[in-house]
Amino acid sequence: MSEVIRVMVVDDHAIVRRGLLAYVNTVPLFHMIGEAADGEHAIALLKEWHALGQPLPHVVLMDLQMPGMGGIEATGVITRTFPDVKVVVLTSFGEVERVQAALAADAAGYLLKDADPDEVAMAIRAAVTGGMHLNPTIARQLTRRMTAPRVGLTSLTDREREILALLAQGKSNQDIANQLVISERTVRTHVSNVLAKLQLSSRTQAALLAIREGLVTPPS
Fold first, then answer.
1. Domain spans, the chain
2. Cystine design at 107: which of 29, 102, 174, 186 (Cβ 3.0–4.6 Å)?
3. What digits encode the pLDDT tens for the residues 118-156?
4. Are 142 and 99 in contact (CB under 8 A)?
5. What is the CATH number assigned to the segment(s) 5-147?
């Protein structure tokens, strides 16, 4: 794009803000218009600028770990309140759970603080044009997570959850088959799948997990 890209940085470390300000202002058509030390301050500034009719940033570079309102919560508030403002996470934390939480809050990119300056510029430009840039290592982690076999309660089908609940009630395979009007062989297959997905080795373990997770009421 040919117009100036307005950038804001949110980070609780002043030296990081100074460094990003110095870098951004050296990139042609990039201009740093503001900074904040936490999420609450960032949102307050955006609301103030909006009320005064001042231009808002095209992109906010957002740290995650900050005192007070952290980066994920702030990202969600900003993207809901100011849909035209894009948020690119720039943080030291690369855990998949944090990445997924940031993306769920509509972050338009996720970078680690050891990123090259060119990568930061690339992520900012991608966000402005409606794209998304992910740190390559993080992108690989997300791909592995998405393609890995699902495990845990959320991986169970409705039928498997039903059978797990019946297991926790002490029902035998034949009892379950009679109640669900399916063959005992089908029940055995479902039970085997449940144990595999829950990474358990016995019906007793499965029953205890079902009780612990509230799928059934424990016997009195």
1. 5-147, 153-212
2. 102
3. 999 999 999 999 999 988 888 887 777 655 555 577 788
4. yes
5. 3.40.50.2300
